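Whiteboard transcription, Tuesday session. T.W. wrote the structure tokens on the left side:
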């Protein structure tokens, strides 16, 4: 494990922040930890074409109660982008589990945003001993819930895409078309290789077409929180009700937010997460 930085300072004292690169068999994985190391672990998994930075507004609201662990999935952010990388959802989940093992984490609540919730589900399937509870944030339960979009022409000849093209592609990730897409999101997508982008866009669809998430989750017996921005423009927010097939699942709709409540309303999102994890531990 290579430590790459020690984190910022708050009021003259070092914040308990650590950024590291884990050398895994099939590619390096960037991991960031915030908060006290003896607090209950909470793993955050970002969505497609994003990175651990997508959680930046949420993390300071969570570290009072948790050791917050964020990863860049393979192909994203500061993690590796091998040309022969396995970008399928089960492969991404396996690496997430290996990262927690390397960090000495034996049990964790896992939260995923968008397709990160699909990876979180796969991790719980693979490692029920490791995952104590799941929180899915704007994760479509099946492809039936997907809202078809006008295709954005991003091909090999347009790679790396321009800021304008990326913002056009990312605009449906928010409650309204004129929402200012954060520059971090733009930079994260541009930093991906075209090969990784295509493979990663395809992977969640293949996983959902194989079996819907509620059907996967209801046999696991894990506490489940589902948060859905009511104005989601990528997945029908009414589809969140499908998760009620999971015994004991708690489903929360957030009015006024779209596909990315972790960016549009981090306070309400964090409050729901903290109330859930307090009961789950």
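and on the right, the sequence the group agreed on:
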């Amino acid at each position: 494990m290579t430590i790459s930085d020690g984190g910022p300072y708050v009021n003259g004292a070092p914040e308990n922040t650590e950024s590291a690169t884990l050398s895994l068999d099939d590619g390096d994985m960037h991991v960031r930890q915030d908060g006290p190391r003896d607090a209950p672990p909470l793993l955050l998994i970002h969505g497609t074409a994003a990175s651990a930075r997508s959680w930046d507004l949420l993390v300071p609201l969570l570290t009072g109660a948790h050791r917050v662990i964020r990863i860049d999935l393979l192909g994203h952010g500061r993690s590796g982008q091998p040309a022969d990388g396995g970008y399928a959802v089960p492969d991404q989940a396996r690496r997430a589990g290996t990262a927690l093992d390397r960090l000495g984490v034996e049990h964790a609540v896992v939260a995923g945003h968008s397709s990160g919730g699909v990876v979180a589900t796969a991790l719980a399937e693979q490692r029920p001993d490791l995952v104590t509870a799941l929180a899915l944030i704007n994760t479509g339960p099946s492809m039936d819930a997907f809202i078809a979009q006008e295709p954005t022409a991003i091909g090999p000849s347009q790679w790396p895409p321009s800021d304008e093209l990326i913002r056009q592609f990312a605009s449906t990730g928010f409650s309204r078309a004129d929402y200012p897409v954060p520059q971090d999101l733009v930079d994260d997508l541009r930093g991906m290789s075209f090969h990784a982008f295509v493979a990663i866009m395809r992977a969640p669809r293949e996983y959902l077409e194989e079996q819907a998430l509620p059907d996967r989750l209801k046999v696991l017996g894990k506490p489940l929180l589902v948060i859905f921005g009511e104005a989601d423009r990528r997945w029908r927010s009414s589809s969140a009700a499908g998760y009620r097939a999971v015994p004991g699942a708690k489903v929360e709709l957030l009015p006024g937010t779209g596909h990315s409540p972790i960016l549009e309303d981090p306070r309400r999102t964090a409050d729901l997460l903290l109330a859930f994890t307090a009961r789950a531990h």
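Someone added at the bottom: Residues 2-280 form a domain with the Rossmann fold fold (CATH 3.40.50.1820).
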